[in-house]
Amino acid sequence: MRDPFGRPITYLRLAVTDRCNLRCRYCVPEECGPAGGAVLSGEALVEIARQAVLCGVKKIRLTGGEPLVRRDIAALCRSIADLEGLEELCITTNGTALETLAGPLREAGVDRLNVSLDSLRPQRYAALTRGGRLEDVLEGLRAAERAGFTGTKLNVVLLRGVNQDEIPDFVDLTRRFPLEVRFIELMPIGEGARGDFLPAGEVLQQCPDLVPAGSGGVARRYRLPGAPGLTGLITPMSCRFCADCDRIRVTADGMLKPCLHSEREIDLRGLTGEALRQAIASGAAAKPERHYLAETGHSGAGRTMNRIGG
Ligand code: SAM
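^ thats the input. predicted complex w/ S-adenosylmethionine below
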Protein backbone atom coordinates (compact mmCIF):
# COMPACT_ATOMS: atom_id res chain seq x y z
CA MET A 1 0.00 0.00 0.00
CA ARG A 2 1.50 3.34 -1.07
CA ASP A 3 0.10 6.82 -0.71
CA PRO A 4 -0.07 9.28 -3.63
CA PHE A 5 3.39 10.59 -2.72
CA GLY A 6 4.99 7.14 -3.02
CA ARG A 7 5.35 6.57 0.72
CA PRO A 8 4.84 2.91 1.72
CA ILE A 9 2.15 2.69 4.42
CA THR A 10 3.14 -0.15 6.72
CA TYR A 11 2.30 1.08 10.21
CA LEU A 12 -1.10 1.22 11.93
CA ARG A 13 -1.74 2.96 15.21
CA LEU A 14 -4.90 1.43 16.56
CA ALA A 15 -6.64 3.10 19.50
CA VAL A 16 -8.41 0.46 21.54
CA THR A 17 -10.14 2.83 23.98
CA ASP A 18 -10.55 6.55 24.56
CA ARG A 19 -10.63 6.10 28.34
CA CYS A 20 -7.57 6.77 30.46
CA ASN A 21 -6.87 6.35 34.17
CA LEU A 22 -4.68 9.50 34.10
CA ARG A 23 -5.54 13.06 33.12
CA CYS A 24 -2.25 14.45 31.75
CA ARG A 25 -2.89 18.14 31.62
CA TYR A 26 -1.62 18.68 28.07
CA CYS A 27 -3.55 15.67 26.71
CA VAL A 28 -6.87 15.07 28.45
CA PRO A 29 -9.28 17.93 29.20
CA GLU A 30 -9.94 18.37 32.93
CA GLU A 31 -13.64 17.87 32.45
CA CYS A 32 -13.59 14.78 30.32
CA GLY A 33 -16.88 12.96 29.99
CA PRO A 34 -17.43 9.89 27.86
CA ALA A 35 -16.33 10.47 24.28
CA GLY A 36 -18.75 10.72 21.38
CA GLY A 37 -18.75 7.39 19.57
CA ALA A 38 -18.97 3.87 20.95
CA VAL A 39 -15.64 2.10 21.41
CA LEU A 40 -15.10 -0.77 18.98
CA SER A 41 -15.52 -4.34 20.19
CA GLY A 42 -12.51 -6.66 20.42
CA GLU A 43 -13.80 -8.51 17.38
CA ALA A 44 -14.05 -5.32 15.30
CA LEU A 45 -10.54 -4.24 16.35
CA VAL A 46 -9.08 -7.61 15.33
CA GLU A 47 -10.88 -7.46 11.99
CA ILE A 48 -9.41 -3.99 11.32
CA ALA A 49 -5.96 -5.29 12.22
CA ARG A 50 -6.43 -8.38 10.02
CA GLN A 51 -7.50 -6.41 6.96
CA ALA A 52 -4.80 -3.80 7.51
CA VAL A 53 -2.17 -6.56 7.52
CA LEU A 54 -3.64 -7.92 4.29
CA CYS A 55 -3.25 -4.38 2.88
CA GLY A 56 0.48 -4.45 3.73
CA VAL A 57 0.67 -3.18 7.31
CA LYS A 58 3.67 -4.77 9.06
CA LYS A 59 3.62 -3.02 12.42
CA ILE A 60 0.70 -2.28 14.72
CA ARG A 61 0.82 -0.13 17.82
CA LEU A 62 -2.09 -0.30 20.27
CA THR A 63 -2.76 3.01 21.92
CA GLY A 64 -5.63 5.09 23.29
CA GLY A 65 -6.70 6.49 25.80
CA GLU A 66 -4.89 4.01 27.96
CA PRO A 67 -4.91 0.61 26.24
CA LEU A 68 -4.37 -1.30 29.47
CA VAL A 69 -7.70 -0.17 30.92
CA ARG A 70 -9.44 -2.51 28.45
CA ARG A 71 -10.31 -5.68 30.32
CA ASP A 72 -9.77 -7.85 27.25
CA ILE A 73 -6.39 -6.30 26.39
CA ALA A 74 -4.33 -9.50 26.71
CA ALA A 75 -6.78 -11.54 24.61
CA LEU A 76 -6.92 -8.75 22.05
CA CYS A 77 -3.13 -8.69 21.83
CA ARG A 78 -2.99 -12.45 21.37
CA SER A 79 -5.45 -12.36 18.45
CA ILE A 80 -3.56 -9.51 16.76
CA ALA A 81 -0.09 -10.96 17.42
CA ASP A 82 -1.21 -14.21 15.74
CA LEU A 83 -2.03 -12.49 12.43
CA GLU A 84 0.13 -13.90 9.68
CA GLY A 85 2.26 -11.21 8.06
CA LEU A 86 2.39 -8.92 11.09
CA GLU A 87 6.02 -8.33 12.04
CA GLU A 88 5.69 -6.20 15.18
CA LEU A 89 3.03 -5.56 17.80
CA CYS A 90 3.74 -2.70 20.21
CA ILE A 91 1.81 -0.86 22.89
CA THR A 92 2.04 2.74 24.04
CA THR A 93 1.02 2.90 27.69
CA ASN A 94 1.34 5.12 30.72
CA GLY A 95 2.78 2.04 32.45
CA THR A 96 0.67 2.28 35.59
CA ALA A 97 -0.91 -1.18 35.10
CA LEU A 98 2.20 -2.99 33.87
CA GLU A 99 2.98 -4.47 37.24
CA THR A 100 0.12 -6.92 36.74
CA LEU A 101 -0.14 -6.89 32.95
CA ALA A 102 3.46 -6.98 31.67
CA GLY A 103 3.64 -10.80 31.99
CA PRO A 104 0.28 -11.51 30.30
CA LEU A 105 1.06 -9.03 27.49
CA ARG A 106 4.43 -10.59 26.83
CA GLU A 107 2.88 -14.06 26.78
CA ALA A 108 0.21 -12.77 24.42
CA GLY A 109 2.90 -11.86 21.89
CA VAL A 110 3.46 -8.13 22.40
CA ASP A 111 6.97 -7.34 21.11
CA ARG A 112 7.72 -3.93 22.57
CA LEU A 113 6.47 -1.23 24.89
CA ASN A 114 6.63 2.56 24.83
CA VAL A 115 6.01 3.96 28.29
CA SER A 116 5.00 7.60 28.69
CA LEU A 117 6.66 9.34 31.61
CA ASP A 118 7.06 13.11 31.76
CA SER A 119 8.59 13.52 35.21
CA LEU A 120 10.82 11.52 37.56
CA ARG A 121 9.64 13.53 40.58
CA PRO A 122 6.66 12.03 42.41
CA GLN A 123 4.89 15.29 43.23
CA ARG A 124 5.41 16.77 39.82
CA TYR A 125 4.26 13.54 38.18
CA ALA A 126 1.10 13.60 40.29
CA ALA A 127 0.43 17.22 39.35
CA LEU A 128 1.06 16.67 35.64
CA THR A 129 -1.12 13.58 35.44
CA ARG A 130 -3.70 14.94 37.89
CA GLY A 131 -3.26 12.18 40.43
CA GLY A 132 -0.89 9.54 38.99
CA ARG A 133 1.65 7.73 41.21
CA LEU A 134 5.20 7.68 39.85
CA GLU A 135 5.95 4.53 41.83
CA ASP A 136 3.29 2.62 39.83
CA VAL A 137 5.12 3.42 36.58
CA LEU A 138 8.54 2.55 37.98
CA GLU A 139 7.15 -0.74 39.31
CA GLY A 140 5.58 -1.30 35.89
CA LEU A 141 8.95 -0.77 34.17
CA ARG A 142 10.58 -3.29 36.49
CA ALA A 143 7.78 -5.77 35.78
CA ALA A 144 8.25 -5.26 32.03
CA GLU A 145 11.92 -6.10 32.35
CA ARG A 146 11.15 -9.21 34.44
CA ALA A 147 8.60 -10.30 31.84
CA GLY A 148 11.32 -10.23 29.19
CA PHE A 149 10.54 -7.02 27.34
CA THR A 150 13.59 -5.44 25.71
CA GLY A 151 13.96 -2.28 23.67
CA THR A 152 11.48 -0.42 25.88
CA LYS A 153 11.21 3.29 25.07
CA LEU A 154 10.37 6.06 27.49
CA ASN A 155 8.31 8.85 25.90
CA VAL A 156 8.91 12.24 27.50
CA VAL A 157 6.93 15.20 26.21
CA LEU A 158 9.01 18.36 26.58
CA LEU A 159 7.07 21.02 28.50
CA ARG A 160 8.58 24.48 28.92
CA GLY A 161 8.80 25.52 32.53
CA VAL A 162 7.40 22.16 33.66
CA ASN A 163 9.96 19.40 33.09
CA GLN A 164 12.79 21.09 31.19
CA ASP A 165 14.96 20.98 34.32
CA GLU A 166 14.70 17.16 34.28
CA ILE A 167 16.26 16.69 30.83
CA PRO A 168 19.70 15.71 32.25
CA ASP A 169 18.05 13.27 34.70
CA PHE A 170 16.20 11.53 31.87
CA VAL A 171 19.33 11.41 29.69
CA ASP A 172 21.25 10.05 32.66
CA LEU A 173 18.91 7.02 32.72
CA THR A 174 20.50 5.93 29.42
CA ARG A 175 23.84 5.55 31.24
CA ARG A 176 22.31 3.02 33.60
CA PHE A 177 19.69 1.20 31.52
CA PRO A 178 19.50 -0.04 27.90
CA LEU A 179 16.47 2.18 27.34
CA GLU A 180 15.72 4.68 24.63
CA VAL A 181 14.52 7.93 26.19
CA ARG A 182 12.57 9.81 23.53
CA PHE A 183 11.95 13.51 23.97
CA ILE A 184 8.88 14.57 22.01
CA GLU A 185 7.95 18.12 21.10
CA LEU A 186 4.52 19.15 22.35
CA MET A 187 2.07 19.46 19.45
CA PRO A 188 -0.70 22.08 19.50
CA ILE A 189 -3.51 19.54 19.66
CA GLY A 190 -6.36 20.09 22.10
CA GLU A 191 -4.93 20.88 25.54
CA GLY A 192 -1.43 20.86 24.02
CA ALA A 193 -2.13 24.18 22.30
CA ARG A 194 -1.72 26.19 25.49
CA GLY A 195 1.86 27.33 25.00
CA ASP A 196 4.27 25.04 26.89
CA PHE A 197 6.20 24.20 23.69
CA LEU A 198 9.95 23.66 24.05
CA PRO A 199 12.07 22.75 20.99
CA ALA A 200 13.94 19.44 21.24
CA GLY A 201 17.21 21.28 20.51
CA GLU A 202 17.09 22.18 24.21
CA VAL A 203 18.11 18.58 24.97
CA LEU A 204 21.36 18.96 22.99
CA GLN A 205 22.05 22.30 24.64
CA GLN A 206 21.63 20.87 28.12
CA CYS A 207 23.50 17.64 27.32
CA PRO A 208 26.38 18.60 25.00
CA ASP A 209 28.05 15.18 25.48
CA LEU A 210 25.40 13.49 23.34
CA VAL A 211 26.79 12.30 20.02
CA PRO A 212 24.69 11.42 16.93
CA ALA A 213 23.77 7.74 16.66
CA GLY A 214 21.68 7.57 13.47
CA SER A 215 17.92 7.49 13.26
CA GLY A 216 15.22 5.17 14.51
CA GLY A 217 11.83 5.60 12.86
CA VAL A 218 10.94 9.26 13.20
CA ALA A 219 13.52 9.88 15.97
CA ARG A 220 17.00 11.32 15.56
CA ARG A 221 19.15 9.31 17.94
CA TYR A 222 22.06 10.31 20.17
CA ARG A 223 24.19 8.46 22.67
CA LEU A 224 26.29 9.41 25.67
CA PRO A 225 29.76 7.92 25.10
CA GLY A 226 29.80 4.37 26.51
CA ALA A 227 26.13 4.44 27.54
CA PRO A 228 23.99 1.35 26.89
CA GLY A 229 20.88 3.42 26.21
CA LEU A 230 19.93 5.97 23.57
CA THR A 231 18.39 9.41 23.55
CA GLY A 232 15.90 10.12 20.77
CA LEU A 233 14.50 13.44 19.62
CA ILE A 234 11.09 13.55 17.93
CA THR A 235 10.51 16.95 16.38
CA PRO A 236 7.09 17.32 14.74
CA MET A 237 7.29 21.09 15.28
CA SER A 238 10.88 22.19 14.69
CA CYS A 239 11.72 19.68 11.96
CA ARG A 240 8.79 17.79 10.52
CA PHE A 241 9.26 14.24 9.31
CA CYS A 242 6.25 13.92 7.00
CA ALA A 243 8.44 12.70 4.11
CA ASP A 244 9.06 9.52 6.10
CA CYS A 245 5.50 9.10 7.35
CA ASP A 246 4.45 5.47 6.98
CA ARG A 247 1.40 5.43 9.23
CA ILE A 248 -2.34 5.57 9.41
CA ARG A 249 -4.40 5.78 12.59
CA VAL A 250 -7.72 4.34 13.64
CA THR A 251 -9.56 5.94 16.55
CA ALA A 252 -11.28 3.86 19.21
CA ASP A 253 -14.65 4.68 17.66
CA GLY A 254 -13.59 3.28 14.30
CA MET A 255 -12.54 6.31 12.25
CA LEU A 256 -9.43 6.06 10.11
CA LYS A 257 -7.30 9.22 10.19
CA PRO A 258 -4.95 9.45 7.19
CA CYS A 259 -2.98 12.17 9.00
CA LEU A 260 -2.86 13.03 12.69
CA HIS A 261 -3.22 16.72 11.89
CA SER A 262 -6.06 16.57 9.41
CA GLU A 263 -9.77 16.55 10.23
CA ARG A 264 -10.36 14.04 7.45
CA GLU A 265 -11.74 10.75 8.79
CA ILE A 266 -12.94 7.61 7.05
CA ASP A 267 -15.63 5.61 8.77
CA LEU A 268 -14.67 1.96 9.17
CA ARG A 269 -17.55 1.01 11.44
CA GLY A 270 -19.50 -2.05 10.38
CA LEU A 271 -17.10 -2.88 7.54
CA THR A 272 -15.44 -6.27 7.17
CA GLY A 273 -13.42 -8.17 4.56
CA GLU A 274 -13.00 -6.64 1.11
CA ALA A 275 -15.07 -3.53 1.94
CA LEU A 276 -12.87 -2.85 4.93
CA ARG A 277 -9.70 -3.33 2.88
CA GLN A 278 -11.00 -0.84 0.33
CA ALA A 279 -11.73 1.69 3.06
CA ILE A 280 -8.24 1.23 4.55
CA ALA A 281 -6.65 1.65 1.11
CA SER A 282 -8.72 4.81 0.56
CA GLY A 283 -7.31 6.09 3.87
CA ALA A 284 -3.76 5.61 2.61
CA ALA A 285 -4.73 7.29 -0.66
CA ALA A 286 -6.07 10.29 1.29
CA LYS A 287 -2.82 11.06 3.10
CA PRO A 288 -1.83 14.69 2.62
CA GLU A 289 1.76 15.39 1.64
CA ARG A 290 2.56 17.12 4.94
CA HIS A 291 1.15 18.98 7.92
CA TYR A 292 1.36 22.74 8.52
CA LEU A 293 1.77 22.81 12.30
CA ALA A 294 4.78 25.08 12.36
CA GLU A 295 3.29 27.57 9.90
CA THR A 296 -0.21 27.77 11.38
CA GLY A 297 0.56 27.03 15.03
CA HIS A 298 -2.40 24.71 15.26
CA SER A 299 -3.37 21.19 14.33
CA GLY A 300 -6.43 20.38 12.27
CA ALA A 301 -6.80 17.11 14.20
CA GLY A 302 -10.35 17.97 15.28
CA ARG A 303 -10.10 15.81 18.41
CA THR A 304 -8.06 15.81 21.60
CA MET A 305 -5.06 13.47 21.64
CA ASN A 306 -6.65 10.95 24.02
CA ARG A 307 -9.53 10.59 21.51
CA ILE A 308 -7.19 10.04 18.55
CA GLY A 309 -4.52 7.73 19.92
CA GLY A 310 -1.06 9.17 20.36
N1 SAM B 1 -2.21 6.35 27.55
C1 SAM B 1 -1.11 5.98 26.71
C2 SAM B 1 0.14 6.71 27.14
O1 SAM B 1 0.10 7.45 28.12
O2 SAM B 1 1.17 6.52 26.51
C3 SAM B 1 -1.36 6.13 25.21
C4 SAM B 1 -2.08 7.34 24.74
S1 SAM B 1 -1.21 8.88 24.90
C5 SAM B 1 -2.34 9.93 24.04
C6 SAM B 1 0.13 8.61 23.78
C7 SAM B 1 1.24 9.61 23.80
O3 SAM B 1 0.79 10.85 23.28
C8 SAM B 1 1.81 9.90 25.17
O4 SAM B 1 3.21 9.68 25.13
C9 SAM B 1 1.53 11.36 25.36
O5 SAM B 1 2.52 11.98 26.11
C10 SAM B 1 1.52 11.85 23.93
N2 SAM B 1 0.83 13.14 23.74
C11 SAM B 1 -0.40 13.49 24.15
N3 SAM B 1 -0.68 14.77 23.78
C12 SAM B 1 0.40 15.22 23.10
C13 SAM B 1 0.73 16.45 22.45
N4 SAM B 1 -0.12 17.47 22.41
N5 SAM B 1 1.95 16.55 21.85
C14 SAM B 1 2.82 15.51 21.87
N6 SAM B 1 2.55 14.31 22.45
C15 SAM B 1 1.37 14.17 23.06
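The chain is about 25% helix and 20% strand.
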